[in-house]
Write a structure and sequence with these properties.
With 379 residues, this protein is mainly beta. It has one domain: 7 Propeller (Methylamine Dehydrogenase, Chain H), CATH 2.130.10.10. Helix content is 4%, strand content 43%. The protein has 2 helices and 28 strands. It has helices at 10-17, 320-325; strands at 41-46, 51-56, 61-67, 73-78, 84-89, 94-99, 104-110, 115-116, 128-134, 139-143, 149-153, 158-161, 167-175, 178-185, 191-197, 202-205, 211-215, 219-223, 231-236, 246-247, 253-257, 263-268, 273-279, 283-289, 294-300, 340-346, 352-360, 368-370. The strands form 7 sheets. A 4-stranded antiparallel sheet has the order 3-2-1-28, with no helix packed on it. A 4-stranded antiparallel sheet has the order 4-5-6-7, with no helix packed on it. β17 and β18 form a beta hairpin. It is globular and about 50 Å long. The protein starts with 9 loop residues before the first helix and ends in a 9-residue tail after the last strand.
């Protein structure tokens, strides 16, 4: 029986997404610096607006809007050399490749025929980017250099790739209180092992490449040292579902934006316990970090989405209209886009740093910092 992941908006949005990508030219505010090797950029995909906002983190100023030429840019992932950002388009079946040096779209890669999901961190070597589609959960291995799909892993659902690139991990609910975590060989596509968890489906591999966080209302810590014999070693009480969590560059903290509860939960990955709850005073979205100890948190003064039945599952209610239109917009459109802004925090004392406003036309779900050398929390 074909396993399918149930998406909150169902087949209506899938049908809406089955159209060709919108073709558009990139809008710019300032020319990017010529020396891309010295860049400190923040890439913020603006889902409803169909653009990616790029900020210079030395000045916190917006330097460019990039039209993704698709629908609903959701989630950005940078290569380790800092030259390429891969953006999963959450309302069309494409992955957009952006050249960091020119801040321009290099190509689009089609994945399936429905819509994209989140994607996984890029492993060292910068050879392959893995992304999946919805609602089927097929995972596609994309050759970064050529943009071609090299291999497809059917019916995996929510997934993450090990930091050595050898293993795919997928999580799928089997009941309201449990999920099955499976390990798959990226070489053969064969299932290696499985373990039951408490219902989470958002995954994050820790720095040691031995432990995986399975994030739901709480976090299951899974020992994946031996993919054929994975073990659930601990549960971290979080108490609320969240969007996609991210690791700080040194891997010592895991920050989780709450699903419309106005907080960011910080987990100490060495102690495996919650050490801080940061009140945003707004609704939190994507998070990423620079190596100078700053956390960048996308926020909106409007609810981003209702709490979904599965943690990490995007329910695009309220933000779908702009994405569905597929028309790039660099200004806030009332009733179509929830406005977005970037808050900056100190990762050491969790205080908010007062910086010039970093405003976006709509909210962002997965941010990406390009630090040189790139040290994203997901690298």
């Amino acid at each position: 029986m074909r396993r399918r992941w149930t998406w909150a908006l169902g087949s209506l949005l899938v049908a809406t997404a089955l159209v060709a990508p919108v073709r558009a030219t990139a809008h710019g505010t300032h020319e990017p610096r010529a020396n891309a090797s010295s860049t400190h950029y923040l890439f913020a995909p603006n889902f409803s607006s169909n653009v990616v906002s790029v900020f210079d983190l030395q000045t916190n100023k917006l330097i460019k809007y990039i039209d993704v030429q698709a629908k609903g840019p959701c989630c950005a992932h940078v290569t380790h050399d800092g030259k390429t950002v891969m953006v999963v388009d959450g309302f069309s079946p494409y992955v957009t490749t952006i050249d960091v040096g020119s801040l321009a779209v290099r190509r689009l890669t089609q994945i399936g025929n429905t819509i994209g999901d989140i994607g996984s961190d890029i492993q060292r070597g910068d050879r392959t980017f893995y992304a999946n589609d919805l609602p089927f959960g097929n995972v596609y291995a994309i050759d970064i250099a050529s943009g071609k799909v090299r291999k497809t892993f059917p019916d995996l659902g929510h997934f993450f790739v090990s930091r050595d690139g050898r293993t795919l991990y997928s999580a799928n609910p089997v009941s309201t209180s449990s999920s099955e975590l499976d390990a798959w060989s990226t070489r053969t596509g064969r299932k290696l092992g499985s373990v039951m968890t408490s219902g989470g489906s958002t995954l994050m591999m820790l720095r040691d490449n031995r432990h995986l966080y399975v994030q739901g209302n709480d976090i299951d810590v899974i020992d994946v040292s031996h993919p054929r014999h994975m073990r659930n070693v601990r549960t971290i009480a979080v108490g609320t579902a969240g969007w996609v969590g991210q690791l700080t560059p040194d891997g010592s903290q895991y920050w989780i934006p709450g699903e419309d509860d106005g907080y960011v939960t910080v987990v100490d990955t060495r102690l495996n316990k919650v050490v801080k709850r940061i009140a945003l005073g707004a609704y939190g979205g994507g998070i990423d970090f620079s190596r100078n100890g700053r956390a960048y948190v996308a926020v909106s003064n409007q609810p981003i989405a209702p709490v979904s039945g599965t943690a990490g599952a995007f329910s695009y209610l309220g933000v779908a209209p702009g994405a569905a239109l597929g028309i790039p917009s660099t200004t806030y459109r009332p009733g179509i886009d929830p406005p977005g802004e970037i808050y900056v925090y100190d990762t050491h004392d969790y205080t908010r740093i007062q910086t010039p406003p970093m405003k976006m036309p709509s909210i962002s779900f997965v941010l990406e910092v390009v630090d040189n050398p790139p040290t994203s929390g997901r690298s």
